[in-house]
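dumping this here before i forget
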Amino acid sequence: MTDNSANRRRVLAVVTNYGVEQDELLVPLDRLRGAGVQVDVAAVSMDDIVTLVGDKDPGKTVRPDLTLADADPAAYDLLLIPGGTLNADTLRLQSAATGIVRSFTDSGRPVAAICHGPWALVEAGVVTDKRLTSYASLRTDIRNAGGDWTDEPVVTDGAGGWTLITSRNPGDLEPFVQEIGTALAARS
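structure:
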């Protein structure tokens, strides 16, 4: 992603305070911020976000910028939903998080979710007729929610008036972040 492809763009990342997969949060944050994008991280509370590596090993700690309840989705160009099994399972139970998802999809703004992150999309009821990927264990949940699950490194689907970018796992971060950059540039 080049510096001028996404200048003055704002991204909202939504997570819980424990269990987000470290690289699925930090790699997009670092790459997007390095390209001049303002990225704010919203968590359940203002307590530190404890990341994990491989869903089990302690990772880096991150300070949230705001809470999910205080986030104004209308102020952002793209929604980022990192994975991590514990993070995603807890996040989908947060009504503020599913409300944020619906705000983005209802207004036609792009959403990017990786690994277990699409669980929040399933819970928000927005995957019907969307083609997407995720960690393989979500395949049945996505299909039961009306989505068309596929096993590819990154899938971008613009059907239904909004763009959905999905990836399977941390190994797919390179094409995932590239697609986020493309979506942000298209909003210029």
